[in-house]
Design brief:
This protein is of the alpha+beta class. It folds into 3 domains: about 160 residues; about 180 residues, no CATH class; about 250 residues, Beta-galactosidase, Chain A, domain 5. It has 18 helices and 25 strands.
Amino acid sequence: MSGTRTSKLGWYARRLGRMSAAEAAWRVREQAVRRAWARRQVRPGDLDSIPPLAAARPSSERRFTVVLPAGAAALVPDRAVAAIISDADRMLKGEWEMLGVVRTDMESPDWFRDPVTGRRSAPEAYAFSLNQRDESAVGNIKQVWEVNRLQHLTLLAVAWYLTGVDAYAVRVAGQLQSWWRENPFLSGINWTCGIELGVRLINLTWIRRLLDGWPGVADLFEGNDLAVRQIYWHQQYLARFVSRGSSANNHVIAEAAGQLVASCAFPWFDDSERWRRDSLLLLDRELTRNTFPSGINRELASDYHGFVAELGFFAAIEAAAAGTPVSDTAWQLLCAMTDCMAALVDEQGRAPRQGDSDDGRVVVIDAPEHNRWPALLALGGALFGRLDWWPRIVPDAGSVLVGALIGLDDPGREVAGRADRRPSRFPDAGLTILRTDGAGAPEIWCRCDGGPHGFLSIAAHAHADALSVEVRYGGVDILADPGTYCYHGEPEWRSYFRSTIAHSTVEIGGGSQSAECGPFMWSRHARTVEIDVPDAALNWTAEHDGYGALRPRAWHRRSVRLDPDARAIDIADVIDGGGHEVRMAFHFGPLVRVSLDGAHAELSWPDAAVPGTARLELPAGLDWRAHRGTVDPILGWYSDGIGRKTPAVTLVGTGQGRRDSPLITRLEFIDMETDAYAEVPQ
């Protein structure tokens, strides 16, 4: 117990060290407010005895007015309808996958139980007395919170909207009543984090909208004092507890978006106008703070770029529908984020795998797919219009229904100054995509990482991946970013997937370029600088100072060149190792077979949708070894989502780096016949 207490104190000391004096003072005051709010807690047993909510309008004056137009359901593509019904029927049977875990309790989920560890937190505990980081008390908090976002109920509501089958609506109503009764204000773990409340409010809004034609919907929402009280409690919480300082990343945007959506959709309270006004300002300010001018999210984690864009989309949709649109600045930033997504994807519509990923979604209107960027692009296309250079987009239920709600002929959708061709470099974010044009042959796609380590002082979702590369062939991971795998509960795996050796770059002196001091915190950030080079569409060079603290200091510069004619990528690493051991790693996707012979490797991926082969010539000055799925040390793993990992080959070359002797790597693709590629579905 003393060791655990010491560990917690150490974490708090490190966290305090990443704050400014102003933030530290604010957090002290915030803790005092949280202690004072204990008297406002409503326990589950108190619900039947609390007085009516004085801040709400009478039930006769509550209306939900922004509904989908008649006939919108008929516009949803048959393919999307079939997928939604299939998933909804599975859920009616009690089965659903969340964060890599197949749950079989979805007929009546336990809102406080972690299905991974089996631990259950106390429903009656005061929310701010619970430590969400303490797995022994609350289990894996990501698993607990995921079901409490209520997104599975939004999918069931879509199924009712498309079919009129009452079983879907009845299940939604039963589980909402359960959640509302078991999670009263400030009781339990589901009141400890504002991002969860924001996402939950957006889903409640869409559940109400999708069930609008169901006879019981008014009694479930505006005629239900408990539902009204819960919507009020959520907004009251978000108005008071706003993320600030070193943690004001995607969390604060979720808080602002949820508050804006709810205050527009449910304007039933004395404070609704103020909440709407304040959340509009907050969203505008934080989108600007969290986004590079190019449109890339400053966390430099691809999954969070999509998550923040989706939050902004749904906030903008609701605000426009309520007649209080977001600012021109916010609208333009959301459009820029959308165009960035269109520019970054490979030919299969897959996003980069940079930084953390937690599979987070905002609203589940369509059957979830692992690759969600095509759905986000479809949604963004409905809002802003598709540019000629965008990849092909297949409409889905979300984009069709949003388009019907806002009206696709709205002239306010137009944004001036959008790119007339696909950009490949985003200098403010240090993100570069080198690619072939894909005409008649599989696209070679290469992401080069030359940006900041992360966002704000803790860089919560960053990885130590400076100068790493990610290469795909026809959308297949060849040199792969291994992903994230976990956030909580397995610290050694969390550290590995964030480390330098887990990325296709160079480690010097046996440690990462940036220093971690907690699962969502870094004490030292490597600084990376991109170097201007000729023919920047095919060449990239950058260097970083992450090993400047070593004695003697060490230094790394990397250049990457794409040769479209030779179908090859050349990587040159100039390293002054300062006498320290150097380890260069190349990680492969799980479909890639690797045959290593000295400094030469033959690669093949015959089981992929786009099969192929390649030759990899490695720096001869290093001792190369292959690893696959080892745990001591951890090496050779690939994660395609939270809670999932699979063995994959990693090649590690060990030796010394010398400034006067560059380490040269050449990856040359041996393409299939053009006619054969033409038969592969694109």
